[in-house]
Structure prediction request, 428 residues.
Amino acid sequence: MDLIIRRAVLAHAHPAGYPTVDIGIEAGLITAVEPHLATAAREEVDAEGALVSAPFVDAHFHMDATLSYGLPRVNASGTLLEGIALWGELKPHLTQEALVERALQYCDWAVARGLLAMRSHVDVCDARLLAVEALLEVKRRVAPYLDLQLVAFPQDGVLRSPGAFDNLKRAIAMGVDVVGGIPHFERTMAEGAESVRLLCEFAAEKGLRVDMHCDESDDPLSRHIETLAAQTQRLGMHGRVAGSHLTSMHSMDNYYVSKLIPLMRESGVAAIANPLINITLQGRADTYPKRRGMTRVPELMAAGVSVAFGHDCVMDPWYSFGSGDMLEVAHMGLHVAQMTGTDASRACFDAVTVNAAAILGLEGYGVAPGCAANLVVLDARDPIEAIRLRAARLAVVSRGRVVSRQPAQRAALSLEGRPESVDFKLHR
Ligand code: FE2
Prediction:
């Protein structure tokens, strides 16, 4: 074997109930998950009872804007609208080389965080399609170690922005994977609904997935998710469509939501919340009480809708923070949605791993024989501890190879009569 990870605890218990397992890897695939592998391997990692998971997956990101913090200036108000204006100021100054360099740097951070698959939107409201070319180049360059899926995203509105639909079609022809949209940014509700119809029909004709920025506002009457679900059902795109953000659902009338959520489940539309961004950008016009603005995550999950969390932004015109850490995303999502119960907390771990992988349609994702050998060894004993500590990624395995290592979190103490170190775990 090429690699064995020994004494691993799995996020979802092995069907036979083994407390720890050895994971055998050969030629980029997981070939064995057993209580003890007697064979030797070229390289071994002893997890010593630490959690070993399939890698983190970010279901919603903007790689064309990432790490542009401060270019050409900082977002002083921190609002969504100043962020969009700032992106507009930055766009004419973008160069392909700088964009590729920033994206590659972010992918380095991602790998170190055990984040090995991402869906990134790429703005197509620029006739040069410079960002599309740059991110297609990045996708090729990172392919040996990271799965990057691209969404053709008409940031300024596919109907509102002249030429945007043609640009989007060109981007798809160039190799972009998924059809995006932003119906709430069109000039009227009717045009928003029309944009959903046009884009879904185009995606259905091409056999592509759809992921739209949808109802990213505090407007309880912004209801494009209803149209998106209805079009998904009409066109038979069950399981291939996602609504991103859906923040208006936070403010909607409860009776209306009791009709909407079953429609979403029946049509197989997935929901992608972006906790760090939703909690900072929504509710800005409120005095007190201030709305959280994140979509109804536990209710959607309870109804059987597939829900993932995305990072959305890292050090860009909209958000000055972040470091590619999906455990930070899960931590925020858990708090915002008050998902502090045991099952709910574990569901937040799933929202940045298995659920996101299913929404992206990743093949061979998981920790079982036959799956791709992509794994992260976390300095935690279970998913809840991993979220609490934003646990160190002791080792990251991509395509069967250890690609990143990080030491465990420890602090050395110098206190009379107290332990010499702490690792922030409960030891009883
Ligand atoms: Fe976004």
